[in-house]
Design goal:
By secondary structure, this protein is an alpha+beta fold. Helices cover 23% and strands 27% of the residues. The protein contains 6 helices and 9 strands. It has helices at 23-28, 45-52, 89-97, 107-114, 136-139, 159-163; strands at 11-13, 34-36, 61-70, 73-82, 101-104, 132-135, 143-147, 154-158, 168-171. The strands form 2 sheets. A 5-stranded mixed sheet has the order 5-3-4-6-9. It has a 4-stranded antiparallel sheet with strand order 1-2-8-7. The longest helix has 9 residues, at 89-97.
């Protein structure tokens, strides 16, 4: 099997990679998703594209966990944007969640709430009650590399599939 983007040696259907994925991700992957084995020391975007293909800079998406607060209540959400952009936390996210304050969730909270490793968080397999905010540019990209829930390994997923994940809401202007 070959990956539709990038230069990876170990490529297989994500549905056959359960032993390489955290349990919530393994339970949520679909037939359209591909798992590629990667070096965990090269999981961050700059090192990743240098190792596995410079074209991946334009076809990678980052997933970050945000916490929105209003009246003592905290709402968590995942935000998925192209790696060449950043999440508009204080504008688009705050308005969509209807909160007074939004910020990136603390690392220990993001890891604890998702069951995933920091630096590998993915929108696949997140808690069912979380909204997944997806930038329209992600949905419009044929294939994207995203986290696998671990720093080792990535998922390659068609953009439209990411926009159709349970709880996904496609937003214009999420990535700026």
């Amino acid at each position: 099997m070959r990956a539709p983007i990038g230069h990876f040696e170990d490529v297989r259907p994500a549905t056959e990679s359960g032993d390489l994925l955290p349990p919530p991700v393994a339970a949520a992957v679909t037939a359209e998703m591909i798992h590629v084995d990667t070096d965990p020391a090269k999981a961050d975007t700059a090192a990743f594209v240098e190792t596995y293909g410079r074209e991946l800079l334009e076809t990678s998406a980052n997933c970050v966990v945000v916490a929105g607060k209003r009246g003592g209540e905290t709402t968590y959400a995942a935000c998925l944007v192209l790696s060449t952009t950043r999440v508009d936390v204080n504008g688009t996210v705050r308005r969509h969640l209807g909160v007074r304050k939004a910020s990136f969730a603390a690392m220990d909270t993001a890891v604890g709430e998702t069951g995933m490793e920091y630096g590998g968080i993915t929108p696949v397999g997140l808690p069912a009650h979380w909204p997944i905010l997806v930038d329209r540019a992600v949905v419009d990209t044929p294939y994207l590399v995203i986290g696998s829930g671990r720093r080792r390994g990535k998922l390659i997923v068609p953009g439209p599939v990411l926009g159709a994940l349970p709880g996904a809401v496609v937003l214009d202007g999420l990535g700026v």
